Amino acid sequence: MSAYYNEIDKYAAQWLRNLIAAGHIAPGDVDERSILEVKPDDLRGYTQCHFFAGIGGWSYALRLAEWPDDRPVWTGSCPCQPFSSASAGRGLRRDDDRHFWPIWKALIVECEPCTVFGEQTSAAGDWFDEVCDDLEGMGYAIGASVLPAASVGFDHARARLYFVGYSNSDSKSRCSIYAKAPRVPRHRGIAAELACEDGLSRGVGAMRAYGNAIVPPLAQKFIEACMT
Do residues 64 and 97 lie in contact, with contact meaning Cβ atoms separated by under 8 Å? Predict the structure, then answer.
């Protein structure tokens, strides 16, 4: 059983490899290609698939939530530029070449993962409408919540939309029935662990990686709510 991580940023990709080697996130392979180049056959045999993986926040959050490494799941936090402040208030720009949801959707259609977790900025109205319509059309039940980092003890709001798609298909839903794994030891926090990894320089690369990362304890609470 192994995980697949897709991350185009070379700095973050090496960070993922260091975290895998240190045992902080699920063991697996890091693919630095653009998601545009990823084919369904590339994903066969992987138990977990993490797209736009950044520095492994979703894998870390799954472990915090006691989601076993051998329990199937897909995760992803698509780039927000097509509808964030970068789009100058014009709403979702489907012609933006960073609108990767349709590409990720195509992989979901082909591979039919049992459970899909995602995260996006809280301003993702039109984008999330499209995601919901598409996932529901594929037979997934959807759950979502806007959660601030302050709700898990951080000193800033950083409100984010967390969502889950759970398959309604009998053939897929069987994949999600697993006993909980033993508790994974908690660490000081992913940022602290990452900063201690060998072979990583500080500076712009680190700041970019931190800035694009999810807040794992917040994702943990959302995952735990979905597991009950």
Answer: no
